[in-house]
Amino acid sequence: MTYLRICFWLLAVSASLALLSGCNQSALLSNVRASAALISPNGDGSDDTLTITYLIGQPATLSAYIEDAAGRRYTLRDAAPRVPSNEAYTLVFDGTVAGTEPGVRRQVLPDGRYTWVLEARATNGATERATGQFEVRDAADRLPHILDLQVTPRFSPNEDAEQDVAYFTYRLPVSATVSIALRDSEGRQIPFITDVAEGPYAQSHIWDGKLPSGALVAAGTYTYTITARDAVGNIVERSGQIEVEQPGRAAAQITFVHIAPVEIALGNTVTVTVRVKNTGDVPIRTQGPPSGYRYTTNTTFAAIEDERWAEKGGGFWRVGLDWGGGHGYPFRWALSSKPMEQWAAPGVFDYLMPGEEVEITGSVVVEQREDRMEFYAGLVHEGVGYPVNNVGRTLVCVGIPGIEDRCPRRQ
Ligand SMILES: [Ca+2]
Ligand SMILES: [Ca+2]
92 alpha carbon to ligand 1 midpoint, in Å? Predict the structure, then answer.
């Protein structure tokens, strides 16, 4: 195709160039072509975008915008520097423009007729302009709004089972890629949720107040920004603040264990005495049954007293007693030496304060027909693990009528 024919061809099929006089090697703006006159920005992969290519023949800045039927302008490029080149520049328009509602960063244009405009401005002030018409049809009609958002406004990541984590819950009307950015009061970013694909239903995330290193953040105000981006290119954001209060590490040690007696008859009682010290820097919360509670080997902490002392969502600490191995500490007692009426929440829970040491006793009536029982104590951090495990292992020989005695103590 000759150069002249290219110029005529451009004039015929492309957008109307306001100035075609510069159809030569040094034309400021030339060869402007739009890929389509109709787009359907709905993420179905068909006609979703409009591509405009153009040549720049002189050092220039390029501005591009879309204008709707009411004359409203949506900027795509604002005086972007362009160097002269024989290779065409490409502008891909995905149908989205800067959002008009609060919290909407980008939003697909609604169905309608639009004009695109390119403006090149040379360093000497000369400008050239190209425009074209296009239609938007079947545009996506739903934004990835972050609906029903609830965020824990304040929490205390200190392992006392009270508001130790912050919950983010929301609902998405369409599938989207979601990020949650956290920033401290000095603007430092804390990685949390990055580009997670989420479906059009209820979502939740939990922030435990920790950095990727595992270290806790400092007390203070943190800003979160939730960003949802759908396949069409719509981007919605919501922000807010979370207070982190009293962050700290819980830690405790068993300083003494005594399990006795070591020889009993079936149906008799084994008693454990445990001393526990809070060696961390935050109060430890604990629940019952209280020190002194008597179990039988046919019951567990979860079943007694109408399941009043079953695990309550994790985080409580208790002293545990087990035998043999693998039962998961069926016998548990509060880390408190006080009667339940004197607990921080009488009859419900108590605290073991930093530096405090308490002595707890518990007993178990042995109804298990097992002549060798190796009891041991531990600390249970419910829902988290056994921070102290398998302490004070003691063989208890159980005399069972009619069963030959295998216990070495009787040999
Ligand atoms: Ca489409
Ligand atoms: Ca807490």
Answer: 14
